[in-house]
Amino acid sequence: MKLKVYADRLSQPVRAVIIFCEVNGIDYEEIKVDLANREHLTPEFAEINPMQQLPAIVHGSFKLFESHAILIYIASSFPGVADHWYPADVYKRSKIHSVLDWHHSNLRRGPITIVQNSILAPVFRSPLNPEAVAEGEKILSAALSKTESFWLDDNRPFLLGQNQPSIADLILVCDIMQIKLVGETDWNRLLGPYKKVQQWIESTRNATNPHFDELHKVLKELKEKLQN
Amino acid sequence: MKLKVYADRMSQPCRAVIIFCKVNGIDYEEIKVHISKGQHLTPEFAEINPMKQLPAIADGRFKLFESHAILIYLACAFPGVADHWYPADVFKRSKIHSVLDWHHSNLRRGAAPYVFNTTIAPILGRPLNPQVAAEAEIILSSSLSKLESFWLKGNGRFLLGRNQPSIADLSLVCELMQLEVLDEKDRTRLLGPHKKVQQWIENTRNATSPHFDEVHRVIMLAKERQQHQRLKAAKNEGGSNMKRPLVSRM
């Protein structure tokens, strides 16, 4: 019973789920759903996920959407997933829940707002909106500040003072990576003040390579395509 | 080592945590943090939760914030919490995670700013923002539709076709109870079309009785005050074409 992952690698939470599967040797099939061609809005995909969003998974007759729920399901259901991804210890696990919840209303909204209102606007046939981009930058900065000062310890590479990555590191870093679409200059400007954040992104990348780089190739390719 | 729950009952997620504790007989101490007085912004409270938000808990040396994380922790860490609140079964549990996640970006993202920017803001000394309210209303309406057509699909009394409540029912229904402070015509317009949603609110209230009503008293008092103020404003404007609740002549 192979796990089916409905995916478009342009989507940050999709990348987190696929990297997780690759790193943990999970047997899965990636079913491409092209966001730019609005394939997520078809009646066929609505059968998989009535919210018409990615990622979604099907495992036998079990369907699930929302990337945090998916990552927890996979970590809990597949053998061989190391404990550090989603610890059994109720205290560590609760802290992971709290950063994943915080993420929804804080960090996630930053990169999405910036990218959908600038470089991705033509892809989704919406207008450029510099005001929204500015707002997105404010949200991102506030969230990165909190990540730098609270979620990341001085001497530990991952969130919550951990020495090994959890599903929270994967989710948050994949979201921040979306900023690569707006170019290196903006990436350096937006992330420049946050040294721990930059180090943490690198730590997460190293802990999950070569899959991290492989999955993020799509951003480089899209950026080049849009610039030409 | 009693559990400490830092709460303001005007906050929807605070109510969910408190009701959960009461229903499950969890021994806790409620420490009131008044948002209207800015007590959540003090350096003392920042020691408890650096995000300066409610609810937050302290269980011995263990501190936690974000209401969904708190509800899951309480369900797992305290004995005697019935399985239906946060089932051990990985499939049921995953579905509960998915609706709790959906809630952040949908129901909460619509309901909270809508109520704030049409009604609550002045209580906290902030201006109303009709544009934010209009955008939030779109998200709220769409979320209510999704609740009616998808999350409450089938014959179950609660979310996900279930016949007993989970932490997701408590979280989402407490969010919707904030709509009580709205002008009745707005509340009717928003909730009226959704019969299953209305029934589900009632089911959740009954399943957590009498604690649900007790914990929601502060919101119902706020509702009365709002109605009183609207009546006063209507009288002052001489607004004869404004709807007024029937007043007994007895």
Explained architecture:
- The complex is a heterodimer of chains A (228) and B (250).
- Chain A is an alpha+beta fold.
- Chain A has two domains: 3-81, Glutaredoxin; 84-227, Glutathione S-transferase Yfyf (Class Pi), Chain A, domain 2 (Up-down Bundle).
- Helices cover 55% and strands 8% of the residues of chain A.
- Chain A contains ten helices and four strands; from the N terminus they run βαβαββαααααααα.
- Chain A has helices spanning 12-23, 43-48, 67-77, 90-105, 109-116, 130-151, 167-177, 184-191, 195-208, 211-227, and strands spanning 3-7, 28-32, 56-59, 62-65.
- Chain A has a four-stranded mixed beta sheet with strand order 2-1-3-4, with helices on one face.
- In chain A, β3 (56-59) and β4 (62-65) form a beta hairpin.
- In chain A, α1 packs antiparallel against α10 (211-227) and α5 runs antiparallel to α6.
- The radius of gyration of chain A is 17 Å and the shape is globular.
- Chain A starts with a strand and ends with a helix.
- Chain B has 250 residues and is of the alpha+beta class.
- Chain B has two domains: 3-81, Glutaredoxin (3-Layer(aba) Sandwich), CATH 3.40.30.10; 86-229, Up-down Bundle (Glutathione S-transferase Yfyf (Class Pi), Chain A, domain 2).
- Helix content of chain B is 56%, strand content 7%.
- Chain B is built from eleven helices and four strands; from the N terminus they run βαβαββααααααααα.
- A four-stranded mixed beta sheet of chain B has the order 2-1-3-4, covered by helices on one side.
- In chain B, α4 packs parallel to α5 (107-120), α4 (90-105) runs parallel beside α7 (167-177) and α5 (107-120) packs antiparallel against α6 (130-151).
- The longest helix of chain B is centred in the middle third of the chain and has 22 residues, at 130-151.
- Chain B is globular and about 60 Å long.
- The mean pLDDT of chain B is 94.
- Chain A binds chain B through residues 50-51, 62, 64-70, 72-73, 76-77, 90-91, 94-95, 97-98, 101-102, 104-105, 146, 149-150, and chain B through 50-51, 62, 64-70, 72-73, 76-77, 90-91, 94-95, 97-98, 101-102, 104-105, 109, 146, 149-150.
- Chain B: Residues 89-229 form the GST C-terminal domain.
- Chain B: Belongs to the GST superfamily. Theta family.
- Chain B: Residues 231-250 are annotated as: Disordered.
- Chain B: It catalyses: RX + glutathione = an S-substituted glutathione + a halide anion + H(+).
- Chain B: InterPro entries: Glutathione-S-Trfase_C-like, Glutathione-S-Trfase_C_sf, Glutathione_S-Trfase, Glutathione_S-Trfase_N, GST_N_Theta, GSTT1/2/3, Thioredoxin-like_sf.
